[in-house]
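Our preliminary data section would be incomplete without showing what the modeling component actually yields. Below, a chain of 302 amino acids is followed by its predicted structure, encoded as tokens that our downstream tools consume directly.
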Amino acid sequence: MARKTVLCHFYNEEWILPFWLKHHREIFDHGVMIDYHSTDRSAQLIRDFCPTWEVITSGNANFLPQPVDDEVMMHEAKLEGWRICLNATEFLFGNYARMHDNPGTDQIFVGQWMFTDMERREEPFYLNINLPLYQQRWWGYGIVKDFSATQSHGSVPRAPRSLHNHAIRYDVLGRHYPGSPQTHPDLSIFYYGYASLEQGSINRKMQIQTQCPLAGINTNHKFTFDQLMDRFRKEQQPMSRDLREEIKLYIDMHEAYMINKRSQPPLQTQEHIRTAITALNTALMQAEPGGFELQAEPRVVG
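Predicted structure:
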């Protein structure tokens, strides 16, 4: 099967990384995590949740758009199979079989749904690390088609990301594709950057601007606390609606994928079974030449 790799560049993301890692380790074979000199427990969390994934210290001092994209492209060029670079607030959902074994080159543009903390209704205020985010946040707004519609308080629509099985060049800074519609209706990204107003999330939003030296005042990456609250309460919340029916397809496909995956024994377990059967066959043949032989391919029941 085609190898699947997720990349992510991060700085002090310990608040959301447990959700992100637990979700994507089920979908991807490998992860390449680019650490922009975090001072919190982010790198250790990656080693704890995904011990086989790579944690690479960035060669860049901070988040300047072109060097960030260049570094991502450098690491992507070393990979085989499917790859996508996501922020720690972006979660891939839907039909993962789109990452097929086609030997030709392919590129999929994946649209984004935005989720917002509404501070009311049946959604919990404090997020529970033991539950997936989609079970705790379902208010937000859909995939945006007009990417020029930046709001007066600084909220910006999120254009599609690229999921691809070959090395590409990102021609738009930030690795978004505002001119490309979503390729498949059954594969999307859930964006949780505005999904919580608890203190850990607020701290995360405020500290990232220290790593964006070229960002202008009142932009998506540089703002005061009051400006951030205006985005939540004057833009994000008024734009939001209950999305449960609209996103049900993606969640159903994800949960079906998880049920199927958990019903299959890990490859390591299969190999252990084959090794044990081989050893038993050898012992049986030595004890009684010409005796019966067990099947070397294990049959898994249940």
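Residues 298-302 have pLDDT under 50 and may be disordered. The beta strands are 4-10, 30-35, 54-57, 82-85, 90-94, 107-116, 139-141, 161-164, 187-194, 241-242. Preliminary results of this kind motivate Aim 1 of the renewal.
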